[in-house]
Amino acid sequence: MKESDYYNNIEDTIYGSSKETLELIMHELLDLITSIRAEMTEETGMDPVEHLLGRVKSDESMREKCRRKGLPETPQSALYEIHDAIGIRIVCAFIDDIYTIRNRLLALPGVEFVEEKDYIRHVKPNGYRSFHLIIRYRSQWFAEIQLRTISMDTWAALEHHLKYKHHFKGNTALIERELKRCADELASTDESMQTLRDMIRDL
Ligand code: 0O2
């Protein structure tokens, strides 16, 4: 590859020259979450996290989001106007672990609270549940942390899959009602599991 091509490629990504730094920051955040996880495992004897995933939003997906939000497709938009270039998903065993991890994360040096959306207490009309936390790290880098239980994650993955593949043709009201019913049933199981956990702890 010619030197000029290399620079053209850098220009081509919506993140400008920050793509690699975003990856590094994402790994730093994953390490911080791993240490919270280890600390909680030490304290309770149980790992609160089932899965931990991170991604830097793909170039195309970020460009599409800029267009949707009416923003120019520039590094300024991708890094500072939109806050989920870095996305981290923490899938927890129990609902209360979500809030404990949220609090511990915000107590860490370098982590600043920006915004949160509690779709667990304020469920989206379609049944989607998850806790979304936007943070700013080291005074510059935004990241969206999604915290959910295994059930919430399963539902979101299946709903995304169904919608993405089929765009809901035909009796959409019935499909949407059924999806919402599944979400509510899963949520009720989460609540029962949480109650069982509390009962076992009290014993
Ligand atoms: P990806 O690839 O998962 O990141 P916007 O981001 O503009 O769509 P907003 O209000 O900024 O909207 O974001 P919000 O409500 O915090 O939700 C953003 C992310 O949450 C989505 O990311 C999804 O991952 C997830 N999400 C939100 N609502 C639903 C839903 O109804 N079903 C499912 N399966 N996931 C949902 P992206 O950007 O779509 O993609």
Kindly list the characteristics that best describe this protein.
203 residues, 5-stranded mixed sheet, 2 domains, disordered N terminus, Beta Polymerase, domain 2, binds ligand 0O2, alpha+beta, 19% strand
Could you characterize what this model shows?
- The chain has 203 residues and is of the alpha+beta class.
- The protein has two domains: 148 residues, 2-Layer Sandwich (Beta Polymerase, domain 2); 48 residues.
- The protein is built from seven helices and five strands.
- A five-stranded mixed beta sheet has the order 1-2-5-4-3.
- The radius of gyration is 19 Å and the shape is flat.
- The termini are far apart.
- The N terminus is likely disordered.
What's the SSE blueprint?
Layout: H1 3-12, H2 19-44, E1 49-56, H3 59-68, H4 75-81, E2 86-92, H5 95-106, E3 111-118, E4 131-137, E5 141-149, H6 150-166, H7 172-202
Parallel strand pairs: 2-5
Antiparallel strand pairs: 1-2, 3-4, 4-5
Helix pairs in contact: 6-7
This protein binds ligand 0O2.
Ligand 0O2 binds next to helix 6.
Could you give a short description of this structure?
The protein is an alpha+beta fold and 203 residues long. The chain has seven helices and five strands, in the order H-H-E-H-H-E-H-E-E-E-H-H.
